[in-house]
Each structure stands twice: as C-alpha cells, then as structure tokens.
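Action item from last meeting closed. Structure (77 res):
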C-alpha cells in the first residue's frame, strides 16, 4: 500500500476500521490507490451514513414518536 493511502487511512480511523473488516480493500488500494473515493462510498453504505439511510432512520424515529403519542393518548382516555 502506498504511503499516501496509509497516511490517509491513519487520518480517518473509521475508514481504517472498515478496511480491517473488509480485507479485500487492501488489495484494491494496493493495486489502484485512486480507489480511495470508492472506499469512502462503500464505508458510508456500510456504516449507514448515506443520505437515503439517514432519511430512513429519521422516518423510523418519527414513526416511533407518533406511536408513543398515540399510546399516551389511549392511556389517557
């Protein structure tokens, strides 16, 4: 692995952890260091940080709050 890629991974421990969990990325980055951007995208998908995943989380939280409000209203009656 090139020293620049190694230093980049050192700066972002979350990416380094992702590479440790998915060792195929060692091979990808060793052969093609410019795949760092693809690594970032794959890492975001893995950790649930893509825009659509975050919207889904917010939607589920709103649904849970709505259910709790309905439950509180039912217990009040």
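Sequence:
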């Amino acid at each position: 692995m090139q020293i620049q890629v190694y230093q980049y991974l050192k700066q972002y421990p979350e990416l380094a952890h992702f590479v440790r969990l998915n060792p195929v990325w060692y091979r990808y980055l060793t052969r093609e260091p410019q795949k760092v951007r693809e690594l970032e995208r794959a890492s975001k998908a893995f950790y649930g940080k893509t825009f659509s995943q975050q919207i889904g989380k917010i939607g589920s939280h709103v649904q849970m709050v709505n259910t709790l409000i309905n439950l509180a209203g039912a217990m009040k009656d």
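Note appended to the action item: Helices lie at 3-11, 13-21, 24-31, 36-47, 51-76.
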